[in-house]
Amino acid sequence: MAEARHATKAKKTCDIKGCGSEAERSISGKAANNADLKVDEGLKRVHLCKEHYRDYKKASRKTREIENLGR
Ligand SMILES: [Zn+2]
Description:
The chain has a domain of 47 residues. The chain has 2 helices and 2 strands. The longest helix has 20 residues. The N and C termini lie far apart (63 Å). The model has no long low-confidence stretch (mean pLDDT 85). The site of zinc ion has 8 residues, from strand 2 and helix 2.
């Protein structure tokens, strides 16, 4: 029985600082910055767990609303 070592290619972890959950989605680094997510700067792709993806969606929706109000 071969046990998998820690280098499992398929699974990524969430890129939010302090979060080690399994990533379910990935967004662009730019989108993450726009949504004010706590990720390292300069990332091309940001991986998010289910929870933080929900936060991201919430944040981006709020941003859009504010932009619309500004018109
Ligand atoms: Zn997370």
